[in-house]
C-alpha cells in the first residue's frame, strides 16, 4: 500500500493505458477459437463445428500465401531499411542547431505529419499523384515527360508507401533520440574539443555509442512489428490493379472476414500473422542479446 500511495499519480496516468489493453487486447483473446471452428454468426465463439487446422492449411496452400507474406514483409521492412537512420541523423542535426527559433520551427514542421490523419495523408498522395491534375504529373509534363498513373501501377506502390511512411514518422521518431543525446554528459564533448576531435569523430565515437542502447531497443521494437503493416494506409491506397505488390495480410483478412464473411478463415490468417510476429520478436531479441548484451528481456 505504501508503494501505491507513493506512486498514485503515476498509476492514475497508467490506468487508461491498462484499461485500453485489457478491453481491446485481452478480453477478445478467447475469440481465437474461431480460427479452429466453422464459425457462424449468432452461435457464439463456442458454437460451430471444430475443424482443427483446416483454415490454416487452406491459407498455406492458397495461391496468395507467398504473395501476401512477401508484400507484408517488404512494406514493413523497406521503411525500416531506408528510414531507420533518418531520425537519428535528424536528431543529431537538431541538437547542433544553435538558433533556438529555427530549431523549434524545424521540429514543429517535422513533427506535424505524424499527427495528420491517415485518411488525409492518403487523400494528399492520391491528389498529388493524380494523372489528370496532380502536381507531380504536372511537373513531369512541364519537362516533357509522359504522365504516369502512379496509383494504378503496381510497380510504384512500394515506393509511394515507403516514402510516405518515412515522411510521416521520422520527425516524431527523432524525439526519443534527441532526449537521449541531450542526456549525454556535456563534459564528454568538452573533453573531445580539447583533444581536437572533428564533428564526425564526435558523432561516431561519442554520440552514437552513448545512445546505442536506445537505438538497439527501438530497432528491436521495429523488427518485432515487421509483419504488422498498418492496415489503414494500404487499404486507402491500394486497388485491384496493385494487389500484386500492395495486398498484405491485414487487408486480406479484412476482405475474407468482413467482405467475404469467412470469419474462421480470416481469424486463422490473423492468428498466423501474430504467431510469425511473436517468433520474430523472440528471435531478434535473442540474437541482439548475444551480439550486444542488450535486449528487451
Architecture blueprint of SSEs:
Layout: H1 2-6, H2 8-26, E1 37-38, E2 49-50, H3 54-60, H4 65-83, H5 85-96, H6 100-115, H7 118-128, H8 135-142, H9 154-182, H10 186-194, H11 199-210, H12 212-224, H13 231-237, H14 243-246, H15 249-259, H16 263-292
Antiparallel strand pairs: 1-2
Domain ABC transmembrane type-1: 69-284
Keywords: Cell membrane, Membrane, Transmembrane, Transmembrane helix, Transport
Membrane topology: Multi-pass membrane protein
General description of the model:
The protein is an all-alpha fold. It contains 16 helices and two strands. The chain has helices at residues 2-6, 8-26, 54-60, 65-83, 85-96, 100-115, 118-128, 135-142, 154-182, 186-194, 199-210, 212-224, 231-237, 243-246, 249-259, 263-292, and strands spanning 37-38, 49-50. Helix 3 (54-60) crosses helix 16 (263-292), helix 5 packs across helix 9 (154-182) and helix 7 (118-128) runs parallel beside helix 13 (231-237). The protein starts with a helix and ends in a 5-residue tail after the last helix. The model has no long low-confidence stretch (mean pLDDT 87).
How do you describe this structure in short?
The protein has 16 helices and two strands.
Choose one word for the global shape. globular
Using only C-alpha atoms, the radius of gyration works out to 24 Å
Distance between the terminal alpha carbons, to the nearest Å? Answer: 27 Å
Q: What proportion of the residues form beta strands (DSSP E)?
A: under 5%
Number of strands: 2
Return the structural class.
Answer: mainly alpha
Multimer state: single chain
User: How many helix segments?
Assistant: 16
Uncertain runs are none
Rounded mean pLDDT score: 87
Organism: Paenibacillus nicotianae
Main location: membrane
Keywords: Cell membrane, Membrane, Transmembrane, Transmembrane helix, Transport
Domain ABC transmembrane type-1: 69-284
Amino acid at each position: 500500500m505504501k508503494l501505491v500511495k507513493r506512486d498514485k499519480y503515476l498509476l492514475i496516468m497508467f490506468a487508461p493505458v491498462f484499461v485500453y489493453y485489457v478491453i481491446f487486447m485481452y478480453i477478445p483473446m478467447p475469440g481465437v477459437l474461431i480460427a479452429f471452428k466453422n464459425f457462424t454468426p449468432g452461435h457464439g465463439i463456442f458454437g460451430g463445428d471444430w475443424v482443427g487446422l483446416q483454415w490454416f492449411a487452406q491459407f498455406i496452400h492458397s495461391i496468395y500465401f507467398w504473395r501476401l507474406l512477401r508484400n507484408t514483409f517488404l512494406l514493413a521492412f523497406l521503411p525500416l531499411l531506408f528510414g531507420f537512420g533518418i531520425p537519428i541523423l535528424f536528431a543529431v542535426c537538431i541538437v547542433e542547431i544553435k538558433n533556438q527559433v529555427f530549431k523549434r520551427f524545424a521540429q514543429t514542421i517535422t513533427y506535424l505529419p505524424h499527427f495528420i490523419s491517415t485518411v488525409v495523408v492518403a487523400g494528399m498522395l492520391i491528389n498529388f499523384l493524380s494523372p489528370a491534375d496532380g502536381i507531380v504529373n504536372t511537373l513531369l509534363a512541364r519537362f516533357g515527360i509522359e504522365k504516369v498513373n502512379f496509383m494504378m501501377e503496381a510497380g510504384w506502390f512500394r515506393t509511394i508507401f515507403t516514402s510516405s511512411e518515412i515522411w510521416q514518422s521520422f520527425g516524431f521518431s527523432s524525439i526519443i533520440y534527441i532526449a537521449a543525446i541531450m542526456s549525454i554528459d556535456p563534459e564528454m564533448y568538452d573533453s573531445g574539443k580539447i583533444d581536437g576531435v572533428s564533428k564526425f569523430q564526435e558523432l561516431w565515437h561519442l554520440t552514437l555509442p552513448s545512445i546505442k542502447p536506445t537505438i538497439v531497443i527501438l530497432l528491436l521494437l521495429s523488427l518485432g512489428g515487421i509483419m504488422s503493416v498498418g492496415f489503414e494506409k494500404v487499404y486507402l491506397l491500394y486497388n485491384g490493379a496493385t494487389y500484386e505488390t500492395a495486398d498484405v495480410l491485414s487487408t486480406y483478412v479484412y476482405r475474407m472476414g468482413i467482405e467475404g464473411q469467412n470469419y474462421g478463415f480470416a481469424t486463422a490468417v490473423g492468428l498466423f500473422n501474430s504467431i510469425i510476429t511473436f517468433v520474430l520478436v523472440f528471435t531478434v531479441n535473442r540474437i541482439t542479446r548475444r551480439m550486444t548484451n542488450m535486449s528487451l528481456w
